[in-house]
Amino acid sequence: MQKMKKKPSKGFIIAIIVIIVVILGWAGLTRAGFIPNYWEIDFLCAGQDEPKPIFKNDRGKFEELMDIEKPVIYLYPEQKQDVTVQLDYQGKLIADYPAYDKKLGGWSVTAYPDGRLVSVADDKEYSYLFWEGESSRPIKWDLSTGFVVKGSQTREFLQDKLAQLGLTPKEYNEFIVYWYPKMKDNRFNLIHFAGEQYTATAPLTITPKPDSMLRVFMVFKPLNREIAIKPQEIQPFERHGFAVVEWGGTEVR
Fold it and tell me: What is the pTM of this model?
């Protein structure tokens, strides 16, 4: 005779239902920001309309295909001179001003000590070189150091830190006008200023070679709660001779 299969007890079924309800409730509260997502479980908490990291493993490291937003390049020669700026971006350019010369791989301009630029291509004046791009490979941004700042305090934070980094008021004001509206309504912002991770993605070759060059690239991630993080060391920049300054940024979602 065949043995009768034992049916699950009502108590067991009720327990399973309770566990499912608890998990779904926990996921909903985590998604809403009421409970921290300590286990970083994305499949329960990711929004339908939000880009999702391609890969996330080491604590504080996020790997995404993302936009490089509004890098602008200022040139400050000691005297009027012709300058060639070549950008070897590891991705696709999606915006440029003045027009990026594909044959040259960059821009050819006449630069003035006050920062004015005249493009050789159209003989028109510009304040800086501007470009934006989409990366062609994931970038694992290291956010293990940085600063956690309330969204409402982002403006004052950027004024202070960008000045420490070496931007002039004109330069950091233009930075803040672009980035502050994107950050002010977040509860908190985790902010990190990338170094080689950015410069290796967007190498610049400038002829004649600058005497000093500063490339500020902000990576930030909106947060629902304040977290502890090791403060990033800020290295001040000293301008001398022919100086080149660049700023830009990206958001990690």
Answer: 0.75
